[in-house]
Design goal:
12 helices; three-stranded parallel sheet; 8 strands; TIM Barrel; five-stranded parallel sheet; single chain
Length: 287
Amino acid sequence: MDGIIDFHTHNFPDALAPRAIESMVQKLKGVLLPVGDGTLATQLRDMDKAGVAKAVVCPVATKPAQFQVILDRAKAVRDGEFGEEAAMRLIQLGSVHPADRNSAAHLKEVAAAGFKGIKLHPYYQGFRLDDSRVFPYFAALRDAGLFVVVHCGLDLGFADEPLSCGPVQIAALLRAVPGLTFIAAHLGGSGRCTALYPSSPAPHATDLLREFPNCYFDTAVVCCCDDDPESQRVMAEWPADRLLFATDYFWRDVTHIANWVRRFRPNPADLEKIFSDNARRLLGETV
């Protein structure tokens, strides 16, 4: 294993980080508190503590107008404007809002700039994965040669809203857009925290997704799902060559998630794939 790769992390510009985190903590009503302060420097420090070699940074454009600022920051980090260590260890993604009228062109621009994928969050961006109106967007994403990391399943800040990105919705999208490389964050949205989130997916719903060879799960288990039997079952059973180690840092402690993964996948060959090999395959020459 040539260093752990955390496939799902976040940071903000220093001036924005305190305000952004405060807003999200308020939305979460204290159910989840961050383990980091949201800055790039703190992320690098915490990566060292946890033994993480590289991390994929997943920004989310909450409105179409944020496309350019996100892309510009990704380029700046990659090109060394935030220091050599950040350029070498933080792998940037883009984000193109599905409501962006120039989304097809912007997706091509992300790819042309050398980035491998984008991050989406259906709740914050106001769409459903099974809405046929977004299928052309995802087809354009696929055709641009990008993968997509998507928040899936529950979001504790939107507990009262209907499920828009669970396994059933993912399956509908992947049937409509064959060949799309889809990373379903949070174990494919498997978590069943019914006490906090009444519309949690049904047990075994993620089994619908086994038929799609380009559907990966990341291991960023939501805090209330650590002891959830369905999340544990998925972690133990999902194909090892389609699992990506991920934490959703700055929200969750990297060492805690790594140990949780090892608990259910003790096989060294599986861990090699989960902690680094699968990520390297998706990221190619960027790692």
